[in-house]
Write a structure and sequence with these properties.
With 539 residues, the chain is an alpha+beta fold. Helices cover 47% and strands 8% of the residues. The longest helix is centred in the middle third of the chain and has 32 residues.
Length: 539
């Protein structure tokens, strides 16, 4: 009996200590002049999200709207305090002017690197996860690979994928089939084929060969909805240090080894046979030789459209670091992760908007038709695509309403004095995380009138100058913005051009209108998919 009593008291004491430990974690914002969203025990401010009561976008908007008069607010991701920025000027100040204090992403995954720490993790060696000077050097290394001139070289590779996709659909239509598809699946396959050709140097056709190994491996890698994937995500977000000690990585070693071997074998074949191909592997081989540099005649301009982000002085700096093979391969791996999902997400929601806004689709088709006629039988080229003004307006608006990265983060690398110039002044300590809620800012009527309306006219010649750079962030902000914005925009525009040239997009009985977002993922995804029919124009 005494043993049972002792056990009960011990368990009770442990519970009380645990409760005290967790509760104390929620005292952080009490000492700051920052309003804070009320947390729940252990889950912080994210309980509705974790229990699938809300989708990610709604969750972010609720956090953002809780204190509408504040430029910065606080909330808790599990037990971790997070600062959320609510003002475009503050976004620009932290993201650009004071970038040296916030140059890193939050190191929540195994292998995220501090200077001097070695790891074999492909994700840990990627540009996204690298930190400090090592990130600066890698950004400067890769920056010349993503200029407008390099995109011109890659244009034909992407165009071949878009034309192959169209040929498949035209053949299906000629065979008398109804072309009703779930758009995310279609565009994931296209994105997979593009990344296969531009980043891995292989050619795949994921519409004709539905179960090709490159596509299935990639889909398996990005399946975060499995029990195993959800447990990993939960561990990495709530207990990152314990996860690292346990050796938990976001991606299975067998899958990363598959992609690693593919790139190594491809490089060896090119070395042996002297093969030159205008893709990422060729550029990384140039890096290895020290031959990839910015051209003197390259102009710093938005040659790919309004949403393009410009490279900062970080990306144009000179460095002398020598990279290992694994560090270079990791960048191809990152391109795959980014290209497989983000472009397909953008295209999925963009085609949905065009299908339910037929007047906008018709006007875009008219511009495509005029462009096609002006070519006089010649193939479309990069320069002509970039001159399509309405195309750019449509894509820019889609990225406003449906930014694939609904939130971005920054990690404070040294104590920072926050001062909004209106009386709010306090210290953001080293190792604290900042959230920039892109989807919420893009949906704020303070910056966009009637934000729920899909209106490309926001980005016409007259209106685009009125848009605050700190309130339009589809590719992030500051030196740590998305390095691949030109490639992503080229993919989206090429695919849209080829698709609308031959097909009209229409809703079907399976199309969910209005669209609802899935509560089961930590990303932008339609609850029931986006089902549309592609009706051939000339049949």
């Amino acid at each position: 009996m005494e043993v049972d009593l002792f056990t009960a008291l011990a368990i009770g004491a442990i519970i009380l200590l645990l409760f005290h430990y967790v509760s104390k974690k929620y005292h952080y914002f009490l000492a700051k002049p920052v309003p804070c969203v009320k947390p729940s025990f252990f889950f912080g401010s994210g309980k509705p999200l974790m229990f699938r009561k809300l989708d990610l976008t709604s969750h972010i908007k609720i956090l953002y709207d809780t204190f509408p008069d504040s430029k910065i607010v606080g909330f808790y991701d599990f037990m971790k305090p997070i600062f959320m920025l609510r003002d475009p000027e503050v976004v620009k100040k932290i993201g650009v002017k004071d970038f040296d204090y916030f140059m890193d992403h939050t190191p929540i995954m195994t292998g995220s690197q501090d200077e001097g720490i070695d790891t074999d993790s492909l994700f840990g060696n990627s540009l996204f996860a690298l930190r400090g000077q090592k990130w600066r050097d890698m950004r400067a290394t890769l920056s010349p690979a993503f200029t407008g001139s390099k995109m011109r070289h890659m244009f034909d590779l992407v165009a071949q994928c878009a034309q192959s996709m169209n040929s498949f659909f035209l053949a299906e239509a000629k065979a008398g089939k109804r072309l009703e598809y779930e758009m995310k699946d279609i565009f994931s396959r296209f994105g997979n084929d593009v990344i296969g050709t531009v980043a891995f140097g292989i050619q795949v056709d994921s519409l004709k060969d539905q179960d090709n190994e490159f596509y299935t491996k990639g889909k398996e890698m990005l399946n975060f909805q499995s029990v195993k994937g959800l447990v990993k995500a939960l561990m990495l977000r709530s207990m990152p240090r314990l996860s690292q000690k346990l050796g938990i990585d976001f991606f299975d070693t067998s899958l990363t080894d598959y992609f690693k071997k593919m790139i190594i074998d491809n490089m060896k074949q090119r070395d042996v046979h002297g093969i030159v191909r205008n893709d990422m592997i060729h550029m990384l081989m140039e890096v290895r030789k020290g031959a990839l540099k910015h051209s003197k005649d390259e102009q710093d301009q938005k040659d790919a459209g309004f949403a393009t982000v410009e490279e900062s002085s970080v990306g144009k700096s000179v460095h002398s670091r020598v990279w290992t093979e694994n560090e270079l391969i990791a960048q191809c791996f990152l391109f795959f992760l980014a290209g497989f999902d983000t472009v397909s997400t953008c295209m999925t929601f963009l085609t949905y908007e065009l299908a339910i806004n037929p007047d906008i689709q018709k006007r875009l088709y008219e511009e495509i038709k005029e462009t096609e006629q002006s070519l006089n039988g010649k193939p479309l080229c990069y320069e002509v695509l970039q001159k399509m003004t309405y195309m750019d307006m449509v894509v820019s608006e889609a990225l406003r309403m449906w930014p694939p990265a609904v939130v971005s983060d920054r990690f404070c690398v040294k104590d920072y004095v926050f001062d909004d110039g209106a009386g709010t002044r306090f210290i953001i300590e080293k190792n604290q995380t900042i959230w920039i809620p892109t989807i919420a800012i893009h949906s704020d009527p303070k910056y966009y009138s009637n934000p729920a309306k899909f209106d490309p006219e926001r980005f016409n010649e007259e209106n685009r100058s009125k848009i605050d750079a700190g309130a339009y962030l589809p590719f992030g902000v500051g030196p740590r913005n998305c390095i691949g914005s030109r490639l992503a925009l080229m993919e989206v525009k090429l695919m849209l051009y080829c698709l609308l040239k031959d097909f009209n997009l229409e809703p079907t009985e399976q199309t969910q209108i209005p669209l609802q977002l899935s509560k089961s993922v930590f990303a932008l995804k339609a609850e029931k998919g986006v089902w549309l029919e592609m009706k051939p124009r000339n049949m």
